[in-house]
Amino acid sequence: MPVITLEGPKVEDIDRKRDFTAKLTKLTAEFYNIRPEAIVILLKENSQENVASGGRLIIDLAKPADKE
Hints:
This protein is an alpha+beta fold. It has 1 helix and 4 strands. The chain is elongated and about 50 Å long.
């Protein structure tokens, strides 16, 4: 059973999540030639204050570096 874990920003629109996971499931089922029911998708949503890139929190990336 494939397990797909995706980490990214929070998505409030539940219909977008339904559409995304349905498309990802279909593609994965075709790739592995298995039933869609055998696929598990875990969406891990991270807030911008809990993710950093280049040593800076994502929430701060829109701010100029010298303003911190």
